[in-house]
C-alpha cells in the first residue's frame, strides 16, 4: 500500500520485515482476564502515557485500541472500564512523535460525517500518523445500549463497505455531494479540513469469512488474520493477499499475539502458571464466551470447555509468543515466513512486558532480519 502513506506514517516506511504494534491496552486488565499483579487495573491515564512512551522509545510501530462499552465482570473486572478510542487516540497523538496511533470505530455507532471530521482532526494532531480500525459490528449487548439493531451477519460487511466509501468521499472531495445509498442518505455533505495523509488515512479491518476478506481486499490497507499456528494462518494469509491482488491492491496482514517472556523456558512457564492458571478469571471469560456465542447451545459447550477458557485467559486466545527471547524470535520468524507483515502485541503487564521485549527480544529480532534496529532513522 502506498496511496495512504505519508512521510510520517511508520507502518509503511519499508524499514522492517515485521511491523509491531501494542494492542488492547485501553481497557482494564488489557487482554488478560486475570487478577495477577501488573495487569491494568484500575484504568489510569498516567499509565497509558507511560506505556505509550515506553513503546515509542522501544521503536515499536503502532498503538491499536479496542472499542468496548461494557466489560465482562468477574473478580478481575475484565474490560469493565474502557477509554473510548477516538479521544484516546487524540491524546496519545499529542504526546508522541513517531509511532502510528489507531482508533477503532464500530460502523453502526458512528456516522461517517462525524467520523470524517474526527479522523482529520487527529491526523492533524499527529502530523499524519493516524490510522482507523473499522469494525463491522457484532456485539448485540453493546448495540442495545445505543438502541441500535444488530444487522444480520450476511449484511454487516455490505453496510461497512457503503459506510467506508462514504468516508473516503468525505476525505477526498472538495465540493458538496449527495449520498443516496442503500444504508446511508445525506444531502450536500462536505468535510474540511482533509486528513494530512492523502487521499485518506490507512484503514485496518478484521475478518476471515469470505465477506470479511472481500471487504479488506476492497477497502483496507491492513487486515487482521487470527489463528493459533503457522499451518492454520498460512492459507488464510494467502487468501487475503490474493483477494487484494485481484483488485490491483496490496493488503498487509497482521495477527494478534500474546507475549510472555522469561530468561529461561522454566521461568516463562512459571509466569504463565501464575497469570493464567492461578490468577486467571474464569468467571469473566465464561461471561465473555456466553455473550460471544449469543446463548447458542450448539457452540456454547465448545466455548465453555476448560481448555478454551484457559486460552481466553491467555490473552484472548491470541497466537502465543511464550518462552525465552530466542524462542519468541523463532516464532516471529515463522510468522514472517508465511507472509505475516505485522503483530499486534499484548502483555499481561504492559510496562514490564514492553521493557523486557525492548531489552531481550528486539536485539535478536534485529539479528534475525525482522527489524531494522535502532540505528535506522525512523
TrEMBL record:
The Luciferase-like domain covers 19-341
Keyword NADP assigned to the entry: answer is no
| GO BP of this protein | alkanesulfonate catabolic process
Name the Pfam families on file: Bac_luciferase
Query: Keywords in UniProt for this one?
Result: Flavoprotein, FMN, Monooxygenase, Oxidoreductase
Q: Which residues cross the membrane?
A: none
EC number from the UniProt entry: 1.14.99.46
Molecular function GO labels:
alkanesulfonate monooxygenase activity; uracil oxygenase activity
**What is the name listed in the Swiss-Prot or TrEMBL entry for this protein?**
Pyrimidine monooxygenase RutA
* Organism expressing this protein natively: Pseudonocardia autotrophica
